[in-house]
Fold this sequence. Notes:
Layout lengths: L1 H21 L3 H23 L2 H32 L5 H8 L6 E8 L5 E7 L2 E7 L2 H18 L5 E6 L11 H6 L7 H11 L15 H12 L1
Parallel strand pairs: 3-4
Antiparallel strand pairs: 1-2, 2-3
Amino acid sequence: MAGRIRSTLSSLAQNWQMTQRVYKTLPLEVAGIFIATAIVVAVPIGLWLNWLTALILAIPMALLAATFWFSRRAMRAAYTQIDGQPGAAAAVIQSLRGGNWLVTPAVAANKNQDIVSRVVGKPGVILISEGPSSRVVHMLANERKRTARWLPEIPIYEIQVGNEEGQVPLIKLQKALNKLPRNLRGGEITEVRRRLDALGNAASSMPIPKGPVPTSTRQVRRQR
Length: 224
């Protein structure tokens, strides 16, 4: 039990330090949320009932609100730290819970470290690019043709991850995936992945970030 408590506190401290590097005002934000929530909850209850009951109810609610705010900040900070690194999109998808996403990173790559990763899920096949639109549009088109030869009956979607107009920011990638229609079932997803394995990776040695998103978000969820 003591070891688990130490591990939790250590994870919390690491997340706090990582988040504060991105959000310098984090202590003020968390304290402000705690105080504001405590006041909003305690004052009406204290006036109508009694102040002891108000404190008993206000403190847990304030802690919950402050923790929720911190967890959101921690998640955004984690995305910020890996945004722009080759393979960041694949790392984010691999860290997602649920959805049954099967990720093959870097099925296409170029000398500029622009990459296309392939994701198989309930929507079908999703090709996700990382890099400037002017460079990745042709990579996506080529990979789409190559994939369609093997799976002519499976829907294929394209998502450009980036910060240019028309691209999907890394932090909104999960939302973009969840908006896609559900076309396949569990067994069909596995069969599609098996058929695509023959295509292999164009850049199996491409470095995929192992840092904040795959680990920190899970730690934040556990703390919540």
